[in-house]
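Section 3.1: Structural characterization of target chains.
Under the original work plan, the team committed to producing a structural model for every single-chain target entering the pipeline before any wet-lab resources were allocated. The record below documents one such target. The sequence was received from the expression subgroup and is listed exactly as submitted; it comprises 166 residues.
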Amino acid sequence: MDEQWNLVEEIKKLSVGERAALRREAGGKLCDASGRALAAFYRIIPPGLSSRKQECWFCVLTIACLWNVEDAREGDSMPELLRQLAKHQATGGMDARIRSLLDTRWEEDGYLSAKLCRLARMLRSDNWQVMPDADSLLTDVLYWNNERRTVQLRWAQRYFQTSEEE
């Protein structure tokens, strides 16, 4: 990914209708997307992406469109925001969701994409003004299947490791 690329700035170039079309596809697969969502998607992604990378970009773009990018601000990484949400909920259910997510591989069936989208919707319902850092989420999704599981290790550390002030 180009160092100068900013996903949120690219999304801001889309019309409200195009963003809504992408938002409606959140959690779905690229091959099942509407024509309007496909047109918006291919307008803003870099050319020459492999089909796997296109699926990753589609996942993150549709998740980012859950927020109004004009009003929301990018916050911490997704695992850090999920940790903050879990502290507010105090039910323990989020821990199980994260453990399950960490054991899931990125496959063509869209299962991980759907899980990430459900978690993003939970974040949005808790705080519609702060969205996860879209660029770091994209990098994480692109490298999710790394054989050393560096993304999962980082997510586990950021989510489960307690800080000194807790």
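Residues 83 and 162 are 9 Å apart (CA to CA).
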